[in-house]
């Protein structure tokens, strides 16, 4: 699939702001099944830019604007070609007991800011897998399906700072929350799992005035010999060619799409507009 992605973040400040510093993680990853064909990042007003790679090899663009302004718009445009991947094969959980592998994957087995490994979370995981771990992908799919069946998708019910145990209590949230719950379930069972930020192409989406698509979040589980494999508890499906990965981390706190600080009053508004379209083979790519 040839996918075109527009992601625009606009800040409007109650009073004049200055010394704006923003980290932007919106550049799609190059990986098996996903090739980034183009990427551009612009801002209005025009700001200084540079980039670096973070601990998890995500490209981070830094956008700095020292002059005074009352509005800042940061816009990313990408074109990505995706292709289907085969489903993961059987994988013995005993392979995860390799000490070197456990050391390399330590970050994706531990407590994090938004994913605390509580007894309640462990109990849910054990109840889902009464026979213990038998096959990594099958077990991860069982845990993911439990999240889909047990939680209600309610936009606005949570915030970007909601923790996994708050979601576990309320049983509602959005894709970020469901990904955090699945991370906690997997890690409670000693399955290495990481948070993925990106986009999901919905070919049934119909844009109306004032509407927007959104970033998406899902989970990747590590299978020795096969690598990281994506699974989406929000849509109850493995990640396929409809998914575009932008960044990976321990949880959302590692990879917010746009984050930063500025000098000025606290009051501001933020609008995010996302649009994902497909270029078919008989169209000319722009």
CATH topology (level 3) name of the largest domain:
C8orf32 fold
Number of DSSP-assigned strands: 14
- What is the string of helix and strand elements? EEEEEHHHEHEHEEEEEEE
Radius of gyration: 20 Å
Largest sheet report: 7 strands, antiparallel
Shape label: globular
The CATH class label of the largest domain is: Alpha Beta
How far apart the termini lie comes to 15 Å
State the helical fraction: 10-25%
Number of helices: 5
CATH architecture field of the largest domain: Roll
**Mean pLDDT level:** 94
Beta-strand portion reads: 35-45%
Q: Structural class given helices, strands, pairing?
A: alpha+beta
Low-confidence stretches: none
**Number of domain units:** 2
Describe what you observe in this structure.
By secondary structure, the chain is of the alpha+beta class. Helices cover 18% and strands 40% of the residues. It has 5 helices and 14 strands. The strands form 3 sheets. Strands 1, 2, 3, 4, 5, 13 and 14 form a 7-stranded antiparallel sheet that branches. The chain has a 5-stranded antiparallel sheet with strand order 11-10-9-8-12. It has a two-stranded parallel ribbon with strand order 6-7. Helix 2 (119-128) crosses helix 5 (175-188), helix 3 (136-150) crosses helix 5 (175-188) and helix 4 (164-170) packs across helix 5 (175-188).
């Amino acid at each position: 699939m040839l996918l075109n992605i527009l992601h625009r973040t606009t800040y409007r400040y109650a009073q004049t702001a200055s010394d704006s510093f923003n980290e932007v993680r919106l550049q799609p990853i190059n990986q098996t099944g996903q090739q980034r064909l183009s990427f551009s990042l612009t801002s209005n007003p025009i700001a200084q830019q540079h980039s670096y790679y973070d601990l998890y090899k995500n490209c981070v663009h830094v956008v700095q604007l020292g002059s005074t302004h009352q509005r800042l718009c940061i816009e990313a445009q990408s074109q990505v070609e995706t292709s289907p991947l085969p489903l993961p094969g059987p994988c013995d959980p005993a392979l995860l007991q390799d000490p070197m592998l456990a050391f390399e994957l330590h970050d994706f087995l531990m407590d994090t800011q938004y994913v605390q490994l509580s007894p309640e979370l462990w109990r849910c995981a054990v109840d889902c897998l009464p026979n213990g771990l038998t096959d990594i992908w099958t077990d991860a799919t069982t845990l993911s399906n439990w999240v889909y069946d047990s939680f209600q998708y309610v936009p606005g019910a949570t915030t970007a700072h909601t923790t996994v145990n708050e979601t576990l209590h309320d049983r509602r949230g959005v894709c970020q929350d469901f990904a955090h719950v699945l991370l906690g379930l997997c890690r409670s069972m000693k399955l290495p799992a990481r948070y993925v930020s990106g986009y999901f192409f919905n070919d049934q989406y119909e844009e109306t005035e004032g509407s927007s698509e959104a970033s998406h979040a899902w989970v990747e589980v590590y299978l020795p010999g096969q690598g990281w494999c994506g699974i989406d508890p929000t849509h109850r499906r493995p990640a396929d060619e409809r998914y575009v990965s932008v960044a990976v981390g321990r949880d959302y706190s590692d990879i917010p799409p746009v984050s930063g600080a500025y000098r000025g009053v606290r009051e501001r508004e933020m609008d995010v507009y996302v649009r994902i379209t497909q270029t078919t083979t008989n169209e000319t790519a722009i």
